[in-house]
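Notes on consecutive records. When two proteins share a document, each keeps its own sequence and its own token line. Never mix them. Below: protein one.
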Amino acid sequence: MSEQRFAGRVAVVTGAGSGIGQAVARQLAMEGATVVGCDVDAEGLAATAELVEEGGQPGTMIVADITVQADVDRIVAALPDRRVDLLANVAGVMDHFVPVTELDDATWDRVLAVNLTGPMRLCRAMLPLMAGQGRGAIVNVASIGGLTGAVAGSAYVSSKHGLVGLTRSIANLYAEDGVRANAVCPGGVQTNIGRSSAPKVPWAYERLERSFGRVTRTATPAEVSTLVCWLGSDEAVNVNGAVVASDGGWTS
């Protein structure tokens, strides 16, 4: 394994202000990438900027909301020489474990916007650049909620199943352009996504909680970032359209 797998490469990382996104940005910088990171959390991005700088590579951090097209356009405009080699869609929110019968439109719209529409917009913007280069990789951080309905509420599960479908569609349609797309499906990870995970409907959470008995451990963000970065590297050149669980055996 090369310790400089991303030397001379440009990588875009969403959700870079904390958790998995911050770990991915840090690792990419350490492996030689020029990182363009974005998040709605300005304070978190400032911390990430320091980590990226410690990695020895230049980086650009942009306070941006991926649910807003104008902000996506600003991210594209920040790309050095309009080049992008890796897009890591990491930003995501939970849905408070709300079942469909209790689901309000605002929660549905917000969760789908962050977890599915935002990544679609980033993919839509980056794919022509990757195709023009004849190479590129997209890694979408989904969830085991994209593999099963037993771990979250209806909006979250729907959004992550949709993200898995988007990944497979891109993998199929753009392989001939030299672009690969894969999805990572973490289980429990030590991140601040807990802000949107406090249960709001007791009976639904009690039913979902039955599946939690299979949880063997909670991963660190760095343990997930290693998989994201590997899938985005040339070492995974023959991996396209894969949906890889990183859940300690939860869904086994």
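Protein two starts on the next line and is unrelated to protein one.
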Amino acid sequence: MDLTAESHSIPLSDGNKIPLIGLGTYGNPRMTPKGTAYESVKVAIDAGYRHIDGALVYYNEHEVGQAMREKIADGSVKRGDIFYCGKLWNTFHNPELVRPTLERTLKTIQMDYVDLYIIEMPTAFKPGDTFYPKDDSGKIIYHETDLCATWEALEACKDAGLVKSLGVSNFNKRQLELILNKPGLKHKPVSNQVECHPYFTQPKLLEYCRQHGIVIVGYSPLGTSRDPFWVNLKCPPLLEDELLVSIAKKYNKTSAQVALRFNVQRGVVVIPKSFSPNRIRENFQIFDFCLSETEMKAVEGLNKNIRFVELLMWSDHPEYPFHDDY
């Protein structure tokens, strides 16, 4: 596949396409200055990004929407050039809440449809507008999950034209099979957004998804922040890896660009998050070099099967996805 900065989309099983690199927009809402996501999305679109990954629960979807609309208004891009992914949060799994929640995203970004809408986690929380509902002891209140019922409500949203493609995130094989084997399935999940990078290459899940026409979208493709609240610090910083650094030197690139190129070459979509204009531009510059087969194998060999993002605080949820091998 000949990938270029202008043409790097791959087909989805429903006939739509997804750009192989997107901008992740998550930032800690307590620590990220207002306007940061807005500025970052504008920089990204100017740099060539056409895929923006957002979520209601990031608290910045209004900024992301404003940036996309302004870039459409000034003629930089058309709406059809932009691929926007939104997410259904854990408190909105109840079928009757699915469409209103998607409509809330559409109202926030002020657009008629999203390109991809995904179930953010297979773990349902107590329904309602409190994103992290807690009991008196401070523990998150879980809710019984019926992933098939949630999926049927999403299918109705696609049929109504509110979303072009449907996918999932953080689903393991068993949970994917629940949907794929659902009686009367109308629309298959086209993607599964999961952690994926050279230290966590996801070979089994990648192979399973390939067999079923599901594209892997890799979050934290550069590793992640070192926030001890939710990040596994046993995993060493990915971008300091000697092999990645040495390959980067050879191509006059950064270790981050090598890590991104590795995934893109194996058909994994990457959504590196950055709010630094220089890094945003740098992360996109992965189409002017190519890793050899030997280098690809070597980077694959870095796999440690260690997650940075374990989400252990929810590991007692009946649908916590990471107890399974994949």
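For the record: The chain has a mean pLDDT of 96.
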